[in-house]
Amino acid sequence: MTLSSSIDYSALYKITYGLYIISSKKSDKLSGYISNTVMQVTSDPVQFAVCCNKNNYTAGLIHDSKTFSISALQKDTKDDMIRLFGYNSGRDVDKFEKVNYLTGLTGVPIVTEDTIVWFECELVQTYDVGSHLVFIGKTIKGDTIDINLEPLTYSYYREVKKGVAPKNAPTYIDISKISKSEPQQARLSKYECQVCGYVYDPDDGDSKSGIPGGTAFEDLPDNWLCPVCGTRKSDFEKIN
Q1: 162 burial via Cβ count (<10 Å: 0-12, 13-18, 19+)
Q2: Is the pTM of this model over 0.85?
């Protein structure tokens, strides 16, 4: 049997990840972002690899300060936290203004809100992988906030919270690549948020806003907002 060179993009959803907040600072500038690409790469010393889009404000802070922190998020992390760190830029928003955090030994901010465990790292290596940078950090401090909490996984975030990876994330998938491979049948159109990539599926509706399944996008109230990033209905585009 000869395999084709095509990719079943829906298969990528089965690769497992956690969800984390990666934070850093330079002078008085603090920032952080949601990441689902964090991996322990050595045990002695304890080192972690984190991946960050080159366009992310935090990438520059990590590069310049040579430090970063990792906060492992809990299963019931508030949507506001995901929205703040996942769909806003530190260039425009002070993400730490109303968030609980510690200041690490290096001065790096460490998010403690909705966090199970955290680690403070010193940058030891950086790898350029095209659109993203992979930072390798040696852990100099780590602590547990509540080991009894369950971690937030990408699978739970996507399937239960109906969240999606931002377009800057290394795991972002263009939904049209999946939609094109689905059987064509008469169905209501899906619409994609042009800010965060969330897809409104009329078959599912939006339980967070009390929108039942079977509601066409065109029938949503004019004041309806994206349940992931809070953007307006007018910022959605049809994808099928």
Answers
A1: middle
A2: no
